[in-house]
Amino acid sequence: MSAQIIEREGKPEYAVLPYSDYLRLLELAEDVRDTADATEAMRELVSGEDEVIPAEVVARLIAREDHPLKIWREYRGLTQEALGNSAGASKSYISQIEAGNKIGSAKVLKALAEELQVDMEDLLLE
Question: HTH cro/C1-type domain: from which residue to which, for each copy (predicted)?
Fold first, then answer.
């Protein structure tokens, strides 16, 4: 890599370099950011701050064939009754939300999200 250094008052002010070198530096900077992001993601996984979601669960969420509440509930291995009891909602209320007959109050959705260890937005139909 060759660069022309332009000085101002005897101190380096600018570096002029071939465009191909500039593009390579951009690639390297992106690689450094990607590595830092991957390292942070691994740290979060190891510390338990984040988790790996199985591809089957992600596929179900993307396909939208079932309500997200049902998908997350089943993934966590909970029955409607168990989830309802821990979140302060009835089994029938959970069933109605999963069937799309009720939206669910913000209070209940927040409690359900906490029990399922997801963000409240993850339980909303878009």
Answer: 69-123
Residue 90 lies in a domain: yes
**What six digits make up the tokens of 59?**
């596929």
User: In 15-43, which positions are buried (b, 16+ CB within 10 angstroms) versus exposed (e)?
Assistant: eeeeeeeeeeeeeeeeeeeeeeeeeeeee
Domain holding 83: CATH number?
Answer: 1.10.260.40
E-assigned strand segments in the chain? 4-8, 11-16
CA separation for the pair 111, 126 (Å, rounded): 20
The domain in which residue 74 lies consists of 64-123
Measured CA distances, 59 to 26, 54, 63, 64, 85 (Å) = 34, 9, 6, 9, 28
Q: Six-digit token pair at 91?
A: 């089994």
Q: CA–CA separation, 79 vs 81, rounded Å?
A: 5
pLDDT per residue as tens digits for the range 95-109: 999 999 999 999 999
* Per-residue pLDDT, 98: 97
